[in-house]
Amino acid sequence: MEKFEREIRESKFAELMNKHFTASSIPKGIHCLSLRLTDEYSSNAHARRQLPAPELLPLLSDNSYHHFILSTDNILAASVVVTSTVASSLRPEKIVFHVITDKKTYAGMHSWFALNPVSPAIIEVKGVHQFEWLTRENVPVLEAVESHNSIRNYYHDLSDTTPRMFASKLQARSPKYISLLNHLRIYLPELFPNLDKVVFLDDDVVIQRDLSPLWDIDLKGKVNDNLDSEECAWAYGMNVFDLHAWRKTSIRETYHSWQNLKSNLTMWKLGTLPPALIAFKGHVHAIDPEWHMLGLGYQNKTDIESVKRAAVIHYNGQSKPWLPIGFEHLRPFWTKYVNYSNDFVRNCHIMET
């Protein structure tokens, strides 16, 4: 009996490990897309054209426009977020998208939006290496999390653990948690010093309704919505940030203090969530939950009618719609915004399923 239970436990661990590797991997087609677009950036002047056009640059800091910020290294996912937002907008001419990516993806991301404009919306693509403010001195979190051995030990220590705890450790080991792109939301007031109010979107969301009313919501002097520190939860997928109010707080300092309070970085083992919950406590104003539907990346039995009604649907969880482990009945809400007739998409054999 003991041997049988051990075999079941090991089988469960193996299943969790396989799912973790699948969720953390980059599909061949998406990797191909990034490589081909990066090559296009080198060989095609049109792919390198300035984004936005010089005459539109003043609009990047014009607070009469609706500013969206998206931080990602997934070009296909970024295209879906931007396309769905613009398609669902009643006033797309008022949209300004600030797409932030890492250095290795910058050329490919720039190529995509240079060659596939979403007029009349305005798109800016910027690499983290192009922000002068992002220095090790200003952003100590990244270096600490990447280099701290105790976190690596935490990930690898599987002795006397349960499948549930093992799954939690695997999730925390995801490259996303130690990526600078994952921490950028904490530095929005510094990265966009001239903006007062923005909507920050994750790359695993789809926009299904006009989001312009979000700019009319009175946050009552608070900084953020969609975070509940009492429930230990933050709906990362779609957040409204009042950057003007944020600059009057010590949120960033509080966030960084938890790096130093615990020498073993216990608070950082699950990415940005635990310290963010502490840093934003008291600075949050809740909005109607119908704006943002969660769970499409882990709840297989999600109600389809509820999905259709939601303004923003969020594929949070391992089963992303661009992965083979994505839920088939929920994938069409995402794939409807993929341009499968695009030459780069076709040549990389990213096929509609």
From TrEMBL:
Membrane topology: Single-pass type II membrane protein
Record carries keyword Magnesium: no
Entry EC number(s): 2.4.1.-
Protein localization: Golgi apparatus membrane
Keywords recorded for this protein, A-Z: Cell wall biogenesis/degradation, Glycosyltransferase, Golgi apparatus, Transferase
Similarity section: Belongs to the glycosyltransferase 8 family.
Protein name: Hexosyltransferase
Native organism taxonomy: Eukaryota, Viridiplantae, Streptophyta, Embryophyta, Tracheophyta
